[in-house]
Amino acid sequence: IMSAVAFDILPLKLHPFSQSTPTGLDCLGWKRCISSPVITDGALDKTALTDDVGSEEDLYEDFRSSNHRYGHPGGGGEQLAINELISDGSVVYAEALWDHVTMDDQELGFKAGDVIEVMDATNKEWWWGRILDSEGWFPASFVRLRVNQDEPMEDYPLKVEGGKEDDSSSGTRRFGMGQTTKDQMRTNVINEIISTERDYIKHLKDICEGYIKQCRKRADMFTEEQLKTIFGNIEDIYRCQKKFVKALEKKFNKDHPHLSEVGSCFLEYQTEFQIYSEYCNNHPNACMELSRLTKVNKYVYFFEACRLLQKMIDISLDGFLLTPVQKICKYPLQLAELLKYTNPQHRDFKDVEAALNAMKNVAQLINERKRRLENIDKIAQWQSSIEDWEGEDVLIRSSELIYSGELTKISHPQAKSQQRMFFLFDHQLVCCKKDLLRRDILYYKSRINMDDMEILDVEDGKDKDFNISVKNAFKLHCRDTEDVHLFCAKKPEHKQRWLKAFENERKQVQLDQETGFSITEVQKKQAMLNASKQHHTGKPKAVTRPYYDFLMRQKHPTLPTTLPQQQVFMLAEPKRKPSNFWQNISRLTPFRK
């Protein structure tokens, strides 16, 4: 295990605009006692953000030289408390909020919902932990500390099936003044829900008043379109959360927290929580716009000055903007824990059970949309690997690869057969030809608009339209032009997979129309630009690890560098179905040239 001394050996590079992310919402809203100039409601206070001395840079340096640091949780009381507990021999557990895919043997991989023993929290960004026999580094922002630390490890996490669990032991033990251990555990969870909601409201208020309000005063620096890109609909989220926390407060029993009935609040606001979907979808755009702006020093100093004047903790703006994404993912975990400690006879039991399912559905909806957005980069990379591409980009109409494989295409008028690779996206089927010598190279040949097609199953035997014998065949018939395309698969099971894929393609299109899913022009252009850059620099067209680098290679474990913000957050349920995009593509068409 790496000791605290090792951190002295491996100093981290400090950046004014750090790429750090919040460890948790429970550390927000700490009282900070300092005096600082305040930005008034009128025009921007010239003594605050511009000259007496000169510029935002002067204000920023003045604050830094005065040691006005509002510590990130990694440098504050929470982290010190964790390390003191560890030093005293206590076992500290954290619960994973999202999947962490292991990219190096010195990192600890886990799934959302896993419980990790925290063994070293000296660094604010990366903690050292253990799961069973595996140890390694993991991002502190991917976990939350377990509410009930004294709960036996073998009892946690308990997967609730149908809302029932064995409470024969925990429900009968007594705690304190006649209260069962289970009631005390429920009290802990209720208190966490209430306290984190209060802190979250403070956090949203700081963003709206500390950043957005001040940015709007600087029309010379920001357009309304830029502010919409950076902050999304976070002001709508703030208004929604204020109403939600008031509803929670009304249901909170201060004298006997375990008797609180909060499940109905989540049910009441489940529809309103869907506004998080818009925010999460926009978040990659926000990261890109912030990355572009912060290449200019005046924006770096301006954002830092806003943070300091609002007395916010030491996290950069992109880190603050990540927390709504974290929050909506945290609700199912909190409700699952609350249900675990709620007796079936409790008046809140049925509402909590229903609220858990409702919030899982909300998270799944957002997760699916996020997954789709992540796929557009892969689709753009795929297209850049295809030689002789013609016509519009795939992303103009599509955002999901449904299926891919090899088929024999038979064309009129001479029933000429051609072996081709086909890629079925939503709205279109792309046809490519393999290079005769380099079978990993594909050439674009044509595409079919699936919106105009109907799929016809063809029986084995002689086909009347083409006057040839076929096997494992199906047709695509254009309703407008009456054109017919005949395809043959190698095996019956391959044909059935294609027929199922065509069915799924229509379902996907319909679902997108019902939910209003779409990809912005900015996202499409950025994905194609990134793919073009990668292509011209000669990088391999395969899945690589573009965002994990390490400080140095040594015999003892080394601390990973900070993750880029746009790569940090992953919306994921504990048993999220992984995307099969690359399995479909790489299984058939390696991209190396």
From TrEMBL:
Record-level GO BP terms: intracellular signal transduction
Chain intervals for the UniProt region annotation (Disordered): 156-178
Principal subcellular localization: cytoplasm
GO cellular component: cytoplasm
InterPro entries cross-referenced by the UniProt entry: DBL_dom_sf, DH_dom, GDS_CDC24_CS, PH-like_dom_sf, PH_domain, SH3-like_dom_sf, SH3_domain, SOS1_NGEF_PH
Subcellular location: Cytoplasm
An MF annotation (GO) of this entry: guanyl-nucleotide exchange factor activity
Keywords on record: Cytoplasm, Guanine-nucleotide releasing factor, SH3 domain
The PH domain, residue ranges: 400-507
Highest taxon above the source species: Eukaryota
UniProt domain SH3: residue ranges: 89-148
Span of domain DH: 185-369
Protein name listed in UniProt: ARHG4 factor
Basic and acidic residues composition-biased segments: 156-167
Family matches, as Pfam families: RhoGEF, SH3_1, SOS1_NGEF_PH
Organism, as annotated: Chordeiles acutipennis (Lesser nighthawk)
